[in-house]
Amino acid sequence: MKPKVLVTREVFDETLAFLAEHCEVDANQADVPLAPADLARRLADKQGMLCCLTDRVDDPLLAAAPALKVVANIAVGYNNIEVPACTARGVAVTNTPGVLDDSTADLAMALVLATARRITESEAYVRAGDWQGWHLKQMLGTDVHHATLGVFGMGRIGQAIAKRARGFDMRVLYHNRTRLDAATERAHGLEYRSKDALLAESDFVVLQVPYSPETHHMIAAAELKKMKRSAVLINSARGGVVDDAALIAALTAGTIRAAGLDVFEGEPKLNPGFLALKNVVLVPHIGSSTEATRRAMAMTAAKNAVAVLTGQRPPNLVNR
Ligand code: NAP
Ligand code: GLV
Question: N or C: which end of the chain has fewer CB within 10 A?
Fold first, then answer.
């Protein structure tokens, strides 16, 4: 008998075809997130689950799924999953590292460029019919080239961002809890800084850390005050890493120049204060959203699930 797998949100046809070679598949191709009670009901007889960062996997859900062996997240971040609870119940947790590094780094750089050069504000101005012609002081922005970029979270994606930044002749500072080895720093042209020094020296601060109790509100009012008034904050990590209310206050008061945000506290709802601000670029959590990358993420998750369900070690096991 084939193991049973629940796919909680819409995926690509080839993902389902691959899963169907090895499993009996129950797929929510309607792409409406399943309510917790529906998720629990449909998971009750399943050995595997392909889920998204919009699905909360906690101990009560696991208790309702006694046969579950694997939770395969279609994302690299897995803060939607209670990993210790999974481990305690013998459930493997997997993610999708690597396949989304370049696409997510491209989006982070897109936010750097869009904020610096006021792209969305300029576009809205042209679309509104307000453009009366060229003039010298129109939509003055700030230079990206030769500026200093500070990255919190110099991991896989952080390093892909640093590579792009070097193409713009940027100086790249970073902060991790653990300093990288000298060879990696040299290879990527990186300079290590304390958290406060990075905030004080950077023209662009990019957040690319996982969300955890430790990174919750790692950028709040006190940190924003330590940034240059001319600086820009980019959050391409997770909602909750930034205190959004404090950021709105800082953008309103001119404590920092601008922000570029892919992720929000409590998304898809966002603090309405952002909508009134011209100096913020807002996009709907599309960091990895290119067709090729999302296909690769879904297939990576499917391969992880099948590996566990066929008795092999999955390529991207998260449990320790
Ligand atoms: P990764 O390779 O594990 O890198 C994470 C980096 O963050 C590591 O260098 C880690 O270094 C650092 N870090 C962790 N906790 C920290 C802390 N408290 N203070 C400072 N640095 C800290 O992960 P990745 O693949 O690059 O992905 C990073 C995150 O990006 C994901 O977890 C996800 O939440 C987010 N993401 C968002 C999108 C999007 O669509 N916007 C797409 C992909 C990923 P230390 O352990 O030494 O501190
Ligand atoms: C997206 O946000 C991811 O963590 O993959």
Answer: N
